[in-house]
Specification:
This protein has seven helices and no strands. With 147 residues, it is an all-alpha fold.
């Protein structure tokens, strides 16, 4: 008799939560590609993915699936901004860092990257405005001294 196969013959790394994250596109690109390849190779994985998709379409959701889809553990964008500025209390900053760097929340990573770009653009815009003001007022400063 052949040995029992885990997960109905599926790769043991293809858990329901990973397949649901695949459906939500909430994994890194390389993980999405790996799961897609595994689903193409393993009929059991394709069948389980289809089953999860049909349960979702029928409105049958687990508490974990709802929690992930609604991103209940994700901080507000304002908290992410405070994190970037370094003004969060230490325990909250640690919790957010774990959420982004260890858990690897793609939504929060994208938000942080957007905030970084926004902040860099504002800094560049501010320095450009300062330079224009300085250049436009440089002649005026010399005139005041002459009077």
């Amino acid at each position: 008799m052949p040995p029992a196969r885990l997960n109905g013959g599926m790769d043991p790394h293809l858990t329901d939560s990973r397949l649901e994250a695949y459906l939500d596109e909430a994994l890194a690109d390389d993980e999405l590609a790996a799961i897609e390849q595994a689903v193409r190779r393993a009929p059991a994985a394709a069948a389980r993915l289809a089953e999860l998709r049909s349960q979702r379409d029928a409105g049958q959701n687990s508490l974990g699936a709802i929690w992930r889809r609604q991103r209940l553990t994700c901080p507000a964008r304002s908290r992410l901004g405070s994190y970037l500025l370094g003004i969060l209390p230490a325990d909250e900053a640690t919790q957010l860092r774990v959420h982004v760097e260890v858990v690897g929340c793609l939504y929060c990573r994208a938000n942080l990257e957007d905030l970084r770009r926004e902040h860099a653009g504002e800094d560049h815009e501010r320095s450009g405005r300062r330079q224009k003001i300085f250049e436009s007022s440089a002649g005026l400063l010399g005139r005041k001294k002459d009077r």
